[in-house]
Design a protein that fits this description.
Layout (H helix, E strand, L loop, with lengths): L5 H10 L17 E7 L2 E2 L2 E8 L8 E6 L2 E4 L8 E18 L7 E7 L12 E4 L8 E3 L11
Parallel strand pairs: 1-9
Antiparallel strand pairs: 1-2, 1-5, 3-4, 3-6, 6-7, 6-8
Length: about 150
């Protein structure tokens, strides 16, 4: 799989069962969401955010790209009221070049996931939605490094 789409593919795999139908369908009971996403004080420039149905909620899982630290989910694609786990993925260049496609001579930047799994695969982020939100911001902190003492 092309490294440029690893984040999107991971989030899509998690959400595929509950992905809402796209288009101008019924918006009754759905909410629009938007906000900012930062990691270690910096806006996420190339990422995804997903709201995954949690607990006994009956809504649909939804997601959006995070571009320049901002995401937006319009009402027609939005979630319904209920509890959700929040999963955030983001990639950045590793400093290495890789083949654009297997067997290709074109070289591209290798992208690596840099958001800790506590915010995605093993997320601890949860929310309860009951209305439109244009202030649903996520300021993710870099985990503290535990220093070990030498004996």
């Amino acid at each position: 799989m092309c490294p440029r789409i690893v984040c999107s593919a991971k989030l899509l795999m998690v959400m595929v069962v509950g992905w809402p139908s796209l288009g101008c369908g019924d918006t009754e009971g759905r909410f629009s969401l938007s906000g900012t996403v930062t990691y270690d004080g910096q806006p996420i420039n190339n990422g995804n955010i997903g709201f995954i149905v949690a607990g006994s909620s009956t809504g649909k899982s939804v997601g959006a790209d995070v571009i320049d630290g901002h995401y937006e989910i319009p009402r027609h694609e939005g979630p319904q009221a209920g509890a959700y786990k929040v999963m955030i993925y983001a990639e950045r260049p590793s400093g290495r070049k890789i083949e654009a496609e297997e067997g290709s001579t074109e070289m591209i930047d290798q992208l690596v996931q840099y958001i800790p799994d506590v915010y995605n695969d093993r997320t601890t982020l949860t929310i309860e939605l009951s209305s439109d939100r244009d202030d649903l911001n996520f300021d993710l902190e870099k985990p503290k490094q535990v220093k070990r003492r030498r004996r």
